[in-house]
## 1
Amino acid sequence: MTTTTNAAAAGQHSYHPSLITMLKDSAAAGIVAALLALPLLGFHLLDSAQGLHLDYRFPLVLWAGVIVFAGRFALSLAGAAIGHRLRAGKKAVSPVAPLDIPTAIAKPKPWRKITGWVLVAVALVLPFLPFADRNLVDKATLLLIYVMLGWGLNIVVGLAGLLDLGYVAFYAVGAYSYAILSQHYGVSFWVCLPLAGLFSACFGMALGFPVLRLRGDYLAIVTLGFGEIIRVVLLNWQDFTGGPNGIADIKRPSFFGLPFSAVSLDGGKTFSQFFGLDFSPDHRVTFLYYLILVLALATNLFTLRIRKLPIGRAWEALREDETACRSLGINPTKTKLSAFAIGAMFAGFAGSFFATRQGFISPESFTFIESAIILAIVVLGGMGSQIGIVLAAVLLVGLPEWFRDLQLYRMIAFGGAMVLIMLWRPRGLLSSREPTILLSDIKEAAE
Amino acid sequence: MSRQPLLQVEHLTMRFGGLTAVNDLSFTAYRNEITAIIGPNGAGKTTVFNCLTGFYKPTVGRLTLTPENGKTFLLERTEGFRIAKDAKVARTFQNIRLFGGMSVLENLIVAQHNMLMQASVYSLAGLAFLPKYRNAEKQAVERAKYWLNKVGLTAHADWSAANLPYGSQRRLEIARAMCTEPVLLCLDEPAAGLNPKESLELNTLLRDIRKEQGIGILLIEHDMSVVMQISDHVVVLDHGAPLSDGSPEEVRNDPAVIRAYLGAGDDEDNPAAVAMGHGGVA
């Protein structure tokens, strides 16, 4: 806090935070760190033959305090030096303080489109790249599930501005729809996929109705509750959902009827036999990868298109100002419900894919932490930005997966990355919104 | 030309608990006319607007809208968004409510939501890239362009609305309301915060709208230069109760109005009188 005030003051009077202020500030940070470290590092529970006993590690606490003190002090020094140079540079360029001139919306940046296409191209050839092994494709599949969920939730949170903390509930509905339909009625994946989307959309509506009047924090709490209700029901409805044991042996997907197994059980041909290939378990992994890639891209295309349609524009308008929307004759109830239902539908698709990929589902896969991660992907990506969501998914899901060897330390890296993003890009990685229609484009087209 | 009533407000009363914000107000707004509602701060002007546009449900009273097509709408019984959608009453807000993050053009296109939804069969035709929606959107852009030109914002069409200067935001809000093709336009202090030049431009704009669109305009305003110059009919409110009703000339010379505004006499609630009293003590 002190540094912020100092920085503000420095900006006006080119005043330097004194060394003493910096020392005081760093000492405060060091003490807070030591206090925090006391319960976390200071006590160590040992399990020995005599039973549990505590081990005290107070030097570690001291070290934590000293390290934070030194780091904080170094940061302040560096900050002061850089700030000084920046101010000097700015002064040299414009001696007059710049007025707050309103700026036009930036034209869509071409690099974003190019990045998008490059990412799609890489994703399309990924399984055939020389370094791509089964493990990599599998992890990419997991990553794409989160990208798809992020894109789906983006419709609700990014476009319509409805903070949904229970998104994973719809994902669970999708997964259980497929698992139950396929187990009890032998319905194939391709029939279940739209059905799962439909069921999830219905649940989205069911949740939507009671929470329509709520906004902001209240909405978040109710959706959080809804997510938990679904999970608890799945956990306790033993006869229907298998309870905590979940549902196992879910039918794996087939390539339009051709199973991905070494030998076909029903006497028909398998995928490898049909195409005259040697059997390899990689086929299924690759197929699943392409399946989720298509589903995710469909979600993306849908979102890109719907933004330019009346309903998509109404969602964004609703996010900006609900009262104004009502005064323009937009039905807020229908608009919110449609956002909830469509967002839930994509979670349903992703859920049924998840079930067929895993072959086993249990309520444990649909805990609150999943909702939190998906929401973090959307928020960190920059609300409403499609490519930002991909980047955030790589950061939040991809990196921890790849650095599994680091074990628990990866969580520190995870937390650190979050803090860094919040410091550098508090509005998300890519937060600038692109207008859905530009008069200049229309004019150019007309000429 | 005889005056055709567009909106009839009869015995409108709005109570919030023990507070009576509007007390038995009746007046008529006519087609092709600008009706101004004036009154000191807290007189209940915005409450009247909120009742008209469905944000509040009046405690007592009837609000009848009779557009040219012969239909009749009882606004006090109509759901908020339907007043804008079906009865075609558009409004602006005292504290501007634009879609700040969206571009100026998008603001005007969102205003045509219902027309576009119908043309795109709830966006499905648009999803399928049918020409039906493309044409409807083209039409919407044309209308938006017309109003952009009218309020002088064509050059700023691709700016985000929040980045516009204050006066332009006010004009954009009026343009946005007009894009819904209303029969009655309710403006809540459109001249607040405008400089004299912008205020004059606003007068011209409102006169144009009345002349070219043939709609009724209902206006809440503090700026007397706007009220006296452009309104055809003025309704004065004081403490929620009607005080005077007539042409600008009549209202200006009404002793009751002069008393309320200048604080002659022994009216203790009057801010002017109270201020004078304090001056005397000091």
## 2
Amino acid sequence: MKRFAATAFAIAANLLIALTAASAHPHVWITMTSEVVYAPDGTMTGIRHAWTFDDMFSTFATQGLESKQKGVFTREELKPLAEVNVTSLKEYGFFTYAKADGKKAEFVEPTDYYLEYKDQLLTLHFVLPLKAPMKAKSLDLQIFDPSYFVDFSFDDKTKTPVTLAGAPEQCKLTVGKPQEMDAKLAQQLSQLPPDARNSTALIGAEYSNRLSIQCP
Amino acid sequence: MTAAILSVAIALLLMPGVLDVVLAQTGPFGASRPRAAPPPADGIVGWIFAKQAEFYREMSRVIRAAKTDGSAVWTLLGIAFAYGIFHAAGPGHGKAVISSYLVANEETWRRGIVLSFASALLQAFVAVAIVGIAAVLLNATARQMCDAERVIEIASYALIALLGLRLIWVKGKGFISAARNLGHPLHAVGAAVTPHDHKHHDHRHDHHGHDHAHHDHKQHDHHDHDHGHHDHDGDEHASAWGHAHGPEPEELAGPGGWQRGLSAIVAVGIRPCSGAILVLVFALAQGLFWAGVAATFVMGLGTAITVAAIATLAVTAKSLASRVAHTRSGYGMLALRGIEVGAACVVLAFGALLLVGYMVAERGACL
């Protein structure tokens, strides 16, 4: 009996430990502001993101970069790094997922990108253009990392981290805040399915930064 | 028969590695796979997960504080230690590979502790070396450090895969000979007079570290791992093959000392924790590189403890399974060898899946 109990304990303990195996925590924290850009004719053309990286990543990323003045990096000096960042992010689809009227919306490579270094924090500014400008009754936008190595959150120091630029007047914007990380959610997060990038039924998505725009 | 099946099942479940592979996240090129099984404990997993992130973020805050307040360094060490403990529960710190290695090789739990500590400290050392050489000496960029890390990762995963292959080869032979034994009924203790020479050549018993006239043994270059075998099978020998062995002494280091398991230590240890690299670079930038180094090693200590605990559980489970399997000498041995081959396969699977990017250990800040 004792042996059985010991075996049962060993199994349970191992199972528990094994199941924590899939939980990697974020190594990069990004606070962001986003602006949804519209053309004069009322079609949505893209999103202008400003992603501010956390202090550890900012320090790591600027390690070894040449600068005229120590501790100060100009846009020009950061240009190569910006290019590297944008190239890497491309692989992950810029962590931006959009659905217009229920259909997946495609983005193309960003134009107009640059890095800014202020208060020892790096901020990546870039415009993510839609493949084709669109007019949609409802747009659902999410920004998140399915594997949760990067943590995204809207900048809570700004009153309006998400804005519409030039949108038709009747369009309504709702920003969905990420849910509080309760135990159940954290548990779900720790068992993220692999390559869930294209599914909106993701746990990461629930925790993500979501905004929706309804236009008549 | 049921005991054998039970022991195989137990052992397969027991290995953290198996579930690690099943639940692993994929890299950019991974294919879709079905969702994971439901969790066993409510909240605990999530709690560990949340704690990891918490401690990690705290470290940067405390490093900053340490610029003006020297005593903050002690806080940093405390947090780094806690982070190491929690973080090792996550992917990439060798717990699955080391546990599987211990199970495959029938090592003692003490050997498991040695391996866990050695590999964790090696990881810490490698992290410090990378940042020390790249950032301090060469003033390399993050991209260059990431490239170096990538090369080391590939080397580590390849070594793990090779280790797995070697284990499969050795344990596979053991399995086959145990399978052959099923055909030959084993003699009782009374047959102690059987000259062991004959029996051994038949069974290709390649685990003995004794001074037997084993021609097989000379062909192996695997001196490093086969001796822990005797801890479990001491009694079994006496009954199954009628040896006049005394009980084998419990081995701590065994012949070969710290070199035993070196391959596992190196395979797991050369890949540094990406969190440690970020902390080191950050500390360097704040002019507190030595604090960063201390924190890294303390982190390694925490990691070592967790990995050692998990490894001990794996070894305990294996020895429980082996005692269960013991009662059925023929099928029991087969089941045991089967478990070992299974564990060897887990090691190979890890190396292979990590190599092809199907599984991702840690992405760190190397986007």
